[in-house]
Amino acid sequence: MKAIWLAAVVWLVPVAALACEGPVAVCKSKVDGFALISEGKPATVYVDANSAGPVLQVAQDFAADLERVSGVKPVIVNDLNGLSGPVVIIGQAGQPVIDGLVRDGKLDLKDISGIWEGYVQQVVTGPMPGLPAALVIAGSDPRGAVYGTYDISEKMGVSPWYWWADVPVKKQTDITVLAGARWDAPVVKYRGFFLNDEEPALGNWAREKFGGINAEFYAHVFELNLRLKGNFLWPAMWGKSLPDDDPKSLAMADRYGVVLSTSHHEPMARAHVEWQRQKDAGLMSGKWDYRSNAENLRTFWRGGIERRMCSSSASGSTKTMCHEQVITLGMRGDGDEPMTEGTATALLETIVADQRKIIGEVTGKPLTETPQVWALYKEVQDYYDHGMKAPEDVTLLFADDNWGQIRRLPKAGAGPRVGGYGVYYHFDYVGGPRNYKWLNTNQIEKVWQQMDLAYASGADRLWIVNVGDLKPMEFPLDFFLDMAWNPEAMDVNALSAYPVNWAEQQFGPELGYTISYLLTDSSKWLARRKPELLDAGVFAANPDFKVMTRDWQDMLAASKEVRAELGPEYDAAYFQLVHHPIAAAANVYELYNAVADNQALVAKGDAAGANTAADVAEQAFERDKAISADYHALLGGKWNHMMSQTHIGYDNWQQPDKDVMPVVKRLPVNGVVPKRQAVVADYSAVQVVEVPRHYGGRYTDEHGYVSIDAEFFTRAFSDIGGDVYWELVPDLGRTAGAVISLPQNAPPSDVTASSPMRVEYDVATLKDADAVLHLYLAPTLDTQGRGGLRIGVSIDGGVVQVLGFDLKPDAPDWNEAVKNNIHVLRASFPGLAAGAHTIKVFRIDGNVVLEKLVLDTGGLTPSYLGPVRSFQK
């Protein structure tokens, strides 16, 4: 299998050409243009001494980046007089040097005038007397200057993950910036992440390295956020408060320019833990219940807003909000629980009205001048669905189901609102049906499908994702924030190229394609079923898990080869970003496969086989600890504790206090139960069914079924006019890829139209049968609240059967769907005659993701992924 897996990527191994063309392109060579680094000497960096904190900070960071690339520390100056060599000017509109260049006609900022976080990069000839050239990076505001500067850093070879994942910076003798100008600006206004569920891993690591979750810790978080093009943060909150634990963290956020807020259940700039702390200190009393304790809660909330204020006049009589903030509104129950049963919608409306009154009183400004967000999370969305009113200027933050399916989006035709809409998404979760916190189990293809739907539906004000401990979510977080910068640019082609580009950025072009396949396949395979949901019963019930176990071992062998081929300077980064999740997942699969084998062989009385399986299982359990220890030992223990999340031994939704070895039994041999032996698991007997190549022709039911990956349709028909069309999304879902309709927010299609929108699959059956068609769909939700999602099916010219599904979080069918990462619909076709047929699948609603079709003509047997693709004739 290893050879088969590697063969899939060999044709892509040739080195990708590095583009060095276009305005302000950054070239890693000496060519005509602005010499950012020349013969190892970096350009001078200029920044106005009176610049805002973020501009001063990014100038320092850029100088450090130039040193990382060149090996020489550049000079930072605050005065251009007397300079003669190349200089990088970092600033923003409104500063004397920038405005002077605009006034002299040497710099053009009209494209970013009045735009949020926009920037211009321009090579300017003769910016000042005696100065032949400058690279000018000018922002429409401080963060615009930050993004324009970090963009150059990234293009000259400094990965945003240089510190958080130890990606090495390759030294360059020459870096040239080509002539011209370019500008850019974000589309989604607020873009960020939520540090959550951060114990034991991130919390213990931060306490060891920084003494706690404090300003020193957050400096690294803020820098990463901005390098990833984010600007927004929900801070760590398990027993923590950013302003209360270390007030210097607020100043650090200002220094970097990160917008702070508080999570979905922490209103009015207050961390939840502060309520208990104030009660313990005798400053507050009563329950977290607005009906019985409103006055105390209002006092508590007022303190949160007042803490964000500072004097803006010499007398101190005028106050302004001195820390950039989006204020969270609303209220949930104590400790991120639902409100008490029977909570009235009117009560929540009253709470929000009272909170806004406090904001207005404390700030002394119109409410529209203080950004506010109301998270429609879990039961709060239900109140919204039942008519809860939200002020027009408040951002409504919709949420997913905690498992990657967005629950609700703006109603079709609702039109824009002043506060706009946003999405709260999850890469990590604590809750039912099972916590998932250990490894990255998030496909960027799934993230793209859901966030493309969100953007198409009008949710473009705030995108935030729960990243747990931050590590090991590096890859999907980078993608999430890249997409948030410009969702329209992240089309399917850009999505498909993303893993390659990302791998090349971290590890260079030589092995970029191969590493991209490891990234894509490992995240796809981990998403099939979260590791926390694995156990021996799953393996025993689904024979394809044994094949998956062998596949993981083959991928592990391939990853080891790549690791050996990379230079030693890449080893720590490669281990963190690529190899560790593969090694850890492969080992857990081996563990549970061996436990399942042990149970089956004990039942058969096969002592030798059962005892060997027990040995393999116990070795795998110990190896799990060793793999984590290898991670913790990297770079002298830099990431100690970061992989300490428990993940083996779940017996309910909550994590075990420690990893628990599954029970195995040994049988006596000649009356003696043998001690454990060192063994090597043998997968040579595992039957691997090779997936046939797709080459055209009719799929046949040689084995009593026809199995087709959805992307391999025979024909596709768009809506009349082509405004709604089918799109193939490679690797989306559990197997080969998926078919969706775009744009995803298009109105429902009419299956009775003269030429309805559909995809067709030509098949051939060898015998008459009462056939059943199985449609394997991603477990998406009805974001419009129309009563479910629909898809149509027919065979040949038969009547279209409309199949519907309406998954509701916490309902039994939703639980099974998110566990399995699939939802299967079935349609019966009794009396299907042997011969040639055409299966037709009709679009009705958007956000229906078709992954696989299986036509059962009598031979289908249970399996987790469904049978592999059938042969064509």
UniProtKB/TrEMBL annotation:
Matching Pfam families, A to Z?
GH115_C, Glyco_hydro_115
Q: Which SUPFAM superfamilies match?
A: beta-N-acetylhexosaminidase-like domain
Taxonomy, superkingdom? Bacteria
Q: Which residues form the Gylcosyl hydrolase 115 C-terminal domain?
A: 699-867
MF-aspect GO terms: hydrolase activity
Per the UniProt entry, the signal peptide is 1-19
What's one GO BP annotation on this UniProt entry? carbohydrate metabolic process
Q: What are the protein's UniProt keywords? A: Hydrolase, Signal
Alphabetical list of PANTHER family matching this protein: GYLCOSYL HYDROLASE 115 C-TERMINAL DOMAIN-CONTAINING PROTEIN (PTHR37842:SF2), PTHR37842
UniProt name for this protein: Gylcosyl hydrolase 115 C-terminal domain-containing protein
Q: Give the taxonomic lineage as stored in the record.
A: Bacteria, Pseudomonadati, Pseudomonadota, Alphaproteobacteria, Caulobacterales
